[in-house]
Write a structure and sequence with these properties.
This protein is mainly alpha-helical. Helix content is 80%, strand content 0%. It contains 14 helices and no strands.
């Protein structure tokens, strides 16, 4: 990057402004004009902006967008890390939805409409594959590279993740999206390979699509229409406390899964050559078990409380 022309933080501001024009203005125009194809074009424009800006300022593209041959153990670590991060983000989403059900359900209605109405392969292209490539190059690639000079890498990851969450256009989706963004930023910093954070993003967006496809097949066996079922879900005005309690119980496994995923990412490297829980990490194991048990107990308590309240009502 040619610092004499424009310093990294200046490039970050320029990228954010151009991304905002694309996401909050051009995407609506392209969507109205081209339909789902417009969404793909809008995502592709993020890559054009990211690459174009660094070409203008003579950035080293191979260091801004690092790609290497993936390793099987790190792919496994990425998947396990995603499961843990997904459960954590889902738990937070459910807690927010308990207090603001209509706002949270309404925030994802547009994506849900696409998943319900479009063919599975088209949904995977528009909602999963395209964002996994384009948004990762735009945010974890170009934007995050502007903050790599910061002494604290977590500060850089969090700043970009906040921007990433805000660009999803809903305050109700911002926090869980930000947390997933932190996991993807961490993946890039630890592996220096965009393949893994792209894979994380791909799995995260593909999972609900595939889940809906399975649900649709099951509903067809019972003669129920998926669009009608989705419409009923969208009209839900209250999330039962018992449902939140179940997510709290499941969420207890999230820290352990994140730990295991991180171990697989670093397996064989210095500090990770003595197994998953070497002697010097006994306290970490105890803490993870305590957190899991604590959340399980809290979930059971909330479940019993919800049953009691519903019984009185």
């Amino acid at each position: 990057m040619n610092r004499k022309k424009l310093k990294p933080y200046g490039i970050a501001v320029l990228l954010v402004v151009l991304y905002a024009i694309d996401i909050f203005w051009l995407s609506d125009f392209l969507g109205a004009w081209l339909g789902l194809l417009g969404t793909v074009v809008s995502e592709a424009l993020l890559v054009v902006i990211a690459v174009g800006v660094f070409l203008v300022f003579r950035g080293r593209l191979w260091s801004i967008f690092p790609f290497k041959k993936p390793e099987a153990v790190k792919i496994a670590g990425t998947v396990v890390l995603w499961i843990g991060a997904y459960w954590g983000a889902l738990l937070i989403t459910m807690v927010i939805a308990y207090f603001f059900p209509q706002e949270v359900m309404g925030a994802g209605q547009g994506i849900q409409d696409v998943m319900v109405s479009a063919p599975v392969l088209l949904s995977l292209l528009v909602i999963s594959l395209t964002p996994a490539i384009c948004e990762e190059m735009a945010f974890r690639g170009a934007l995050l590279s502007c903050f790599r000079s910061m002494k604290n890498r977590w500060a850089a990851i969090i700043i970009v993740s906040i921007i990433f969450g805000a660009f999803h256009g809903s305050i109700w989706r911002m926090v869980p999206t930000m947390l997933l963004g932190i996991a993807m930023g961490y993946l890039l910093f630890e592996t220096e390979n965009m393949f893994y954070n792209m894979l994380f993003h791909l799995i995260n967006n593909a999972f609900p699509i595939l889940l809906l496809a399975v649900l649709n097949a099951l509903l067809k066996m019972t003669g129920t229409d998926l669009i009608q079922a989705a419409g009923t879900s969208a009209q839900m005005t209250e999330l039962p406390l018992g449902s939140v309690a179940l997510y709290v119980m499941y969420g207890g496994a999230a820290p352990l899964l994140i730990y295991l995923g991180n171990y697989l990412l670093h397996k064989g490297q210095p500090g990770y050559e003595n197994g998953v829980f070497p002697g010097e990490k006994k306290q970490t194991l105890i803490l993870l078990i305590a957190v899991g048990i604590g959340m399980m107990v809290l979930g059971i308590f909330l479940l019993m409380f919800s049953v009691l309240v519903e019984g009185i009502a």
